[in-house]
Amino acid sequence: MRHAILKTTAVAGLAVLLAACGGGSSAPGGGTTSSGEPSEGAFPDLSGQTISVDAVWTGAEQETFQKLMSDFESKTGAKFNYTSTGDQIATVLGTKVQGGSPPDVAILPQPGLLNQFAKAGNLQPLSDEASAAVDANYSPIWKELGSVDGKAYGVWVDASNKSTVWYNTKEFDNAGISSEPQTWEDFLAAGKTLADAGVKVPVSIGGADGWTLTDWFENVYLRSAGADKYDQLSTHDIKWTDPSVEEALKTLAQLFGDKTLIGDPNRALQVDFPTSVTNTFSANPSSAIVFEGSFVAGVISSSTPSKVGTDAKWFPFPSINGSSPSVVGGGDVAVAFKDTPGAKAFLQYLATPEAAALMVSTGSFTSANKNLDPSAYPDDNSRAVGQAIVDAGDNFRFDMSDLAPPAFGGTKGAGEWKDLQDFLANPNNIQGTMKQLEADAAAAFK
Q1: pLDDT band at 184 (very low <50, low <70, confident <90, very high)
Q2: 263-301 burial by CB neighbour count: b if 16+ within 10 A, else e?
Q3: Which among 104, 158, 226, 301 has most CB atoms closer than 10 A?
Q4: Measured between alpha carbons, how far is 418 from 436 in angstroms, rounded to an integer?
């Protein structure tokens, strides 16, 4: 859920704070094996050195990350100075950069921040060793997401899966649904079966939070238009009046325009994301299906009596017209602001399966590291979420609205959020929705 919340805060105001603090990068000693694991002596002796790290994480997430820092300390002798910025990471880092005192390493919650810091000359490119570890342990798309103008800057230490559809197993059993929907047609049919079985609102939509509607669109668009078109729309290289957008909206209208599936759309526009989950998994649920990211599990566990893995399960977002497995998601990327042996060595370490195993060990994080042993995950649910990301390979795409300027993709009551809320209210207005989306995108991308 963190990535959805950060949409409104992570990039706003950053440009005015950035100050050019560029510099070169030199590789640390040692190397990696063919699997990307550090070879003996790969990390330098960093005794007496302190590595400063800024990230948004607090609580359980910070405790998990502490495991990695402690492990790296034992390997190198380095010490860490960790600072939690909370959701104001863009402002905090921008101020530190402007003042000439950035951290050695920061963990950024979206590619947009990486892009802006890199273009301003604030980041150090990955060392040869860190770059080789990324090549060995990640699908190429992850290196692309961590690169700017052909230079690799980032190592992705966390990846979220926003292509998970959660369902109430008891309601499925009561309706006689014995298999999870595989295709969009299967999904709509399951909703109608649930309605026939007496479920009041088969598919719970959290329309009050506009970001949930962008996630619906992105998943449909990736599967109906394909990854190349997705990339072009993400950067506004094609317009929102493109026929591929029309096709995706028509597909989505099959759901949004059917009151037997989502109930009164005006009522859905009053439901926020947490309530859309509790409506599905409370003691007396009014719904049976809710779509959102893997972070739904946390809401289920903290706010409902349902148990993830038994009462609550998930299936991948359904295929559209035979589309291959794909994942829309988010993540956190580690970058170096300083050209120090400690910063470079730590990024190399973060790209290894060993570091990934520690990161996922508590269930707080998910990794795209393809060489991670799945047994490192603490339970079947988190293991399946992570495996779906790895299996998607280069069909993983970052949340499109996170890639857009905040005025279009991350502002409450404006831009894409508002346009898709209006579409939910009137799914027959496909042409009008496309024109408004294009007008708002064109203004934001100027």
Answers
A1: very high
A2: bebeebbebebebbbbbbbbeebebbbbbbbbbbbbbbe
A3: 158
A4: 10
User: Which pLDDT tens digit goes with each residue over 406-417?
Assistant: 889 989 999 999
- Whole-angstrom distance, CA of residue 432 vs CA of residue 425: 13
Name the residue among 167, 136, 215 with its Cα closest to residue 397: 215
Q: How many Cβ atoms from other residues are within 10 Å of residue 33's Cβ?
A: 14
Tokens of 49: 């050195």
Please report where in the chains the tokens 């299906």 appear, as a residue.
289
pTM of the entire predicted model:
0.84
Of 12-26, 107-121, 181-195, 428-442, which gets the smallest average pLDDT? 12-26
**Measured between alpha carbons, how far is 317 from 324 in angstroms, rounded to an integer?**
11
Strand, helix or coil at 292? Answer: strand
Tokens 């409506």 belong to: 279
Helix (H, G, I), strand (E, B) or coil at 235: coil
CA dist 158 and 273 (Å) reads: 22
Q: What's the token pair of residue 185?
A: 């047609």
Q: Which domains does the chain have, with CATH numbers?
A: 2-161+330-400 (3.40.190.10), 164-325+406-445 (3.40.190.10)
